[in-house]
Amino acid sequence: DHLTGYDIRLAILYLVPIAIATWLAGGLAGAFTSLAAVLSWVWIFQSMHPYTNLLYFYWEGAITGGTFLIVVLLLARLKKALERSDERFVTVLEGLQAAVYAQDSRTGALLFGNRQFREQFATHRPPPQEAGEFHDERAGRWYLVQSRPLRWTDGGGAVLRVLAISDYVIVERAEIEAGSGFTVLTGETGAGKSILVDALELL
Fold it and tell me: What whole-number distance in Å separates Cα of residue 178 and Cα of residue 79?
């Protein structure tokens, strides 16, 4: 502003440090940066403005400062909304019964692990398998693996993996002696057997 003069005003460039301060340090830091920017603007143009009345000049400075503060408020609210969205996402992952974890796609470093993952793999790590099943020798369990690439919060690539226990209940062999009045209800998974049984219980 000092070099270009009042005719070519570059007040919009003040928004760059204001936005950086707000995003990195919060709304209060953005407000102080806005105040410093307005004071600098007033100091530079105090002897250059064309107004015959100083009130008009200070009014323009107040409008500029108000604009800066509105930008600060919007950025602070946007950052808070994103943080809350991340918190809700983490809360959902923590409540899942499956083990969920995220790895850096380049280095393989662990970026996140939910409660089930921390409990089931506290002393070891599962193999970096993209899909299918694998057997955990230590726990004696089979896991069904599902993977999905995603972009992590720092902008880098990551892989989200979901490990669902696939052998929670296994009946290798069973013998049932059918007596008088014994009824068998069979069908494929999802055919509605449980719904029918629940309906009969209401009778």
Answer: 65
With tokens 């719904």, the residue in question is: 195
The pLDDT value given to residue 171: 52
**Backbone φ and ψ of 96, nearest 5°:** -70, 150
∠ Cα 21 25 30 (to 5°) = 45
Beta strand 157-165 pairing with 99-104: antiparallel
DSSP SS3 for 182? coil
What is the rounded CA–CA span in Å between residue 9 and residue 63?
14
Element (H, E) at 90: helix 54-95
Instruction: Please choose, from the candidates 112, 70, 69, 67, the residue with its C-alpha nearest in 3D space to the C-alpha of residue 91.
Output: 112
| pLDDT tens string 105-164 | 888 888 888 988 888 888 888 877 788 888 888 877 888 888 888 888 777 888 888 888
How far is Cα 62 from Cα 17, in angstroms, rounded to an integer?
A: 19
Largest interatomic CA distance in the chain: 108
